[in-house]
């Protein structure tokens, strides 16, 4: 009787642990495949490098600045025109 129980006690836990490791390996394999599929970017989407991104940012900032200056100059010109029309085109500055 002891000879029958002894191999079952030795090999039973071995097979249980081996089965557990096989299931664990399968689950981690699926999780890793899912993670890697989400990490891969499509080929048609290209990343811009840091210099291109900085250059684009500076160009956009310069464009906004120039547009603000152009709008302010237009407003000053309109205000000057209104002032000249109010005084009938005569200069009233003192010197």
**With helices defined by DSSP (H or I, 4 residues minimum), what is the helix count?**
2
- The coarse silhouette is rod-shaped
Count of distinct structural domains: 2
Structural class comes to mainly alpha
Rg (C-alpha, Å): 40 Å
How do the helices and strands line up, and which of them pair or pack?
Elements: H1 2-39, H2 50-86
What is the gist of this entry?
With 95 residues, the chain is mainly alpha-helical. It folds into two domains: 1-40; 49-86.
Keywords, please?
single chain, 95 residues, mainly alpha, 2 domains, 0% strand, rod-shaped
Q: Overview of this structure, please?
A:
With 95 residues, the protein is mainly alpha-helical. The chain has 2 domains: 1-40; 49-86. The protein has 2 helices and no strands. The relative contact order is 0.04. The model has no long low-confidence stretch (mean pLDDT 80).
């Amino acid at each position: 009787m002891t000879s029958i129980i002894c191999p079952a006690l030795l090999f039973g836990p071995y097979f249980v642990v081996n089965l557990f490791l096989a299931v664990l390996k399968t689950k981690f394999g699926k999780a890793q495949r899912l993670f890697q599929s989400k990490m891969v970017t499509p080929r048609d989407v290209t990343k811009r490098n840091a210099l291109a991104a900085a250059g684009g940012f500076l160009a956009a900032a310069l464009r906004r600045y120039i547009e603000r200056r152009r709008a302010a100059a237009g407003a000053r010109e309109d205000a000057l025109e209104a002032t000249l029309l109010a005084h009938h085109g005569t200069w009233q500055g003192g010197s």
